[in-house]
Amino acid sequence: MSIYGQYCPLALAAEIVCERWNMLIIRRIIEGSHRFNNIHKGVPKITATLLSSRLRDLEQAGILTRKRLTHGPGHDYQLTESGQALAPIIQSLAYWGQEWGRDMVIKDLDPSFLLWQMHSRLNTSILPEGRTVIELSLTGEENGSQLLWLVATDGKVDMCLKHPGYEVDLTIMSDLRLFVETWRGIRDIRHEMGRGSIRASGNASLVRRLPDLLLLSAAAHVTRKRPGKEKALSAATPVK
Questions:
Q1: Interatomic CA distance for residues 144 and 183, integer angstroms
Q2: CB 138 within 8 A of CB 179
Q3: Helices and strands counted in the chain (H then E)
Q4: Residue 237's pLDDT band (boundaries 50, 70, 90)?
C-alpha cells in the first residue's frame, strides 16, 4: 500500500481506495459478486495471487469482511458499513469516466469483461420461462472472431467462455469495438440494428426485443463530454 505521509483525509482515503485494482474490486462486490471466482471474472486482468492480496488489504482496512463458506471451499466477501459508504462515490467516478475518461484503445476491448457486464445487465423479465441461451459472435481488429455465451435460467444468468452444450436461442453479431461503444451508450442500439452493424438471429420475439433485453452499461445514459472520437461519434449517431 502506498503511504502518503499526510494527515489530510483525502490522502488517507486514497491510500486504500486508489491502490491499483482496489476500486474495481470494491465495485464488483457492490454489484453483487461475493465469491472469489466471481470477483475475479469481473476483474479478469488481475492475477489470482494479487487479487487474494488486495482482498486481504481491504479486509484489514475495514472495507470488507471475509467469512468461510459453511458448504464447500472458499469465502464469502461482504462490504462493511465503511465499504458500503463508498458505493455512491465509486458510481460518481464511473460517471466522470464516462464523461471525461480517455477514448478507448484496442487493448481496452476485453470480450470476457464485456460478457461479465452483460450477464448482470440483462432484462430477464422479458425472457421466456426455463432456459435461454444467448450467443455473442464478435469480430475485432486484434482478437479475430470470438464466440461467447450467456445462459439464463429462470432469472439467473451465467456466463460461458466455452459452448454450454445447449441449443442457442438468440445470436448477436457485431464488431467488438462497435458493440462496446453501443454498450456504453456512445452509439444508439436501435440505430445500429437498423443499419445492420448489430445483427441478431434466432427466436423472433427475442430478436425484436433485443434493445429492451440489453440494459447496457449503468453509465450509458451519461453524455460523453471529453473532446475526441467518441464524443464526435455520439453526437453524430441518431437516437431512435
A1: 20
A2: yes
A3: 12, 7
A4: confident
pLDDT at 240 over 60: no
Cell readout for 100 is 471525461
Q: Average the pLDDT over 112-124 and give the result.
A: 94
pLDDT tens digits, 171-225:
999 999 999 999 999 999 999 999 999 999 999 999 999 999 999 999 999 999 9
Domain boundaries, the chain: 9-85, 106-236
Strand pairing report for 170-175 and 131-140: parallel
Kind of pairing between the strands at 131-140 and 144-153: antiparallel
Query: Left (φ > 0), alpha (ψ -120 to 50) or beta: where does 118 sit?
Result: alpha
Joined grid coordinates for residue 131: 432456459
Asked whether 151 and 166 are in contact (CB, 8 A), the reply is yes
Q: What is the pTM of this model?
A: 0.90
> Is the separation of the CB atoms in 175 and 139 below 8 Å?
yes
- All three cell numbers of 201, joined, read 438471429
Query: Per the CATH hierarchy, to which homologous superfamily does domain 106-236 belong?
Result: SCP2 sterol-binding domain (3.30.1050.10)
CATH class of 9-85: mainly alpha
